[in-house]
Write the structure tokens for this entry.
Amino acid sequence: KAGVTQTPRYLIKTRGQQVTLSCSPISGHRSVSWYQQTPGQGLQFLFEYFSETQRNKGNFPGRFSGRQFSNSRSEMNVSTLELGDSALYLCASSSTPQGSGANVLTFGAGSRLTVL
Amino acid sequence: GESVGLHLPTLSVQEGDNSIINCAYSNSASDYFIWYKQESGKGPQFIIDIRSNMDKRQGQRVTVLLNKTVKHLSLQIAATQPGDSAVYFCAESENQGGKLIFGQGTELSVKP
């Protein structure tokens, strides 16, 4: 069974540009969550999507957005990039049925974004 | 705001010894706790979880203990091996699906 796949693995952008990251969840998983990981702030929750709807949102500015498609694949977008957006962006999927409690998240290897 | 923190940022142990990684949490409403392991260049990997109605859960070579009175979580690794070297994160959730609050992480180094 394939794991969570994130693309691209590495990318370099300059300030002011925008970036789109992609995540393919484990087959059958309908929930996709995104996290930002930096040395200073650690792992921070960005947002969660379930059945194409945003179910939860973290404390990030509106420059960070996401969406989920009918096949459960998800994308996140960061507009007007800042130096501080340099981070490892992790996607995780789970089979959590809507309305139930927390479930085990399976993470991808991440997309390493460097903003120059 | 609410946060989950770790007592020790680094832990060095001898191969074959037992390891204990500690974690403090502050949200008394959290009802689900998880430990993840992250190796260099990889995403976090699930180790073990525990719900707030339990105080102990065992897996293969790992045990998680939950003390709700003092809001403390620990991960015990028996007979630590070099392959256990990684950064370990505790995380908590307040019944919010994919939203986890992670601790800062503890780096475990196993000496052969």
User: Anything to note?
Assistant: The interface with chain A takes residues 31-32, 34, 36, 41-46, 49, 89, 91, 93, 95-105 of chain B (CB under 8 Å). The longest strand of chain B covers residues 86-93.
